[in-house]
Design a protein that fits this description.
The structure is a single chain. The protein is α/β, with parallel strands linked by helices and 277 residues long. It has 10 helices and 10 strands. An 8-stranded parallel β-sheet has the order 3-4-5-6-7-8-9-10. A two-stranded antiparallel ribbon has the order 1-2. Helix 2 (58-68) packs across helix 3 and helix 7 crosses helix 8. Keywords: NADP, Oxidoreductase.
Length: 277
């Protein structure tokens, strides 16, 4: 992974360019908190912002985008349809609501948030329509295991461009990564720092000391080295800036193996085969 700057992108299978690093806003409060985080990120040269209907902060994200004053074409904005709104017509309606709250004319990426059994195929058909109608530049899924993807692909007209999943050194998702690579589906990481729990891991601390970097920077770079798009969340200006200072070094093969060795297939979020929301 030779990304050299925050503006560096991966090219999705439909030719759309997606930044390798972005800002996630899960659990960032609507109002000033999210407005500031988004504005600071864009001012620090982030170009990708990831939100979702269920985060209930799309209006603030839109306001932060507006206040940052960067042209819309430069930005890559993602949102997701929530489980309760899955299904064909309800997804189309949910998309319009998200767009309206964000104050945007189109989205760069729209995702199915979770693989709701019996619904995600109809939801996907709605996403395909939004894509054909040019309301969104790329479509994808989130929290899909290999078997969910196989099931979707058995009927899909358009292959998902992205699969956003939990990914960090305690959950390296090797089988899923291999499958996504074979299918040319870009993998994206949520919770790359394991919601902060990995910041004090002794192995991560040891690797960080080798490069004079913070543990957060090592974890972010580790994801990028695995060619996984990464969207760390922060509401602190200095941390947002620091999280992006990961393009001036590469982690050695030996240290990557050390970090990979932390894998326990351990989740901080729900298992996509067993969630009840």
């Amino acid at each position: 992974m030779k990304a050299k700057s925050l503006q560096d992108t991966t090219t999705l299978h439909n030719g759309v360019k997606m930044p390798w690093l972005g800002l996630g806003v899960f659990k960032v409060k609507e109002g000033q908190e999210v407005i500031d985080a988004v504005k600071w990120a864009i001012e620090a040269n982030y170009r990708s912002i990831d939100t979702a209907a269920i985060y209930q902060n799309e209006e603030g994200v839109g306001e932060g985008i507006k206040q940052a004053g960067v042209s819309r074409e430069e930005l890559f904005i993602t949102s997701k349809v929530w489980n309760a709104n899955q299904g064909y017509e309800s997804t189309l309606k949910a998309f319009d609501e998200s767009l309206n709250k964000l104050g945007l004319d189109y989205l760069d990426l729209y995702l199915i948030h979770w693989p709701v059994a019996g619904k995600y195929k109809d939801t996907w058909k709605a996403l395909e329509k939004l894509y054909k109608d040019k309301k969104v530049r790329a479509i994808g899924v989130s929290n899909f295991h290999v078997h969910h993807l196989e099931d979707l692909l058995s009927e899909a007209e358009i292959k998902p461009m992205v699969n956003q999943v939990e990914f960090h050194p305690k959950l390296t998702q090797e089988e899923l990564r291999t499958y996504c690579k074979e299918q040319n589906i870009q993998m994206e990481a949520w919770s790359p720092l394991m919601q902060g729990k990995l910041l004090i891991d002794p192995v991560v601390e040891e690797v960080a000391s080798n490069y004079g970097k913070s543990t957060a920077q090592i974890l972010i770079r580790w994801g990028l080295e695995h060619e996984v798009v990464t969207i760390p969340k922060s509401i602190k200006k200095e941390r947002i800036i620091q999280n992006a200072e990961v393009f001036d070094f590469e982690i050695s093969k030996e240290d990557m193996e050390k970090l990979d060795g932390l894998n326990e297939n351990k989740r901080i979020g729900p298992d996509p085969d067993n969630f009840d929301f």
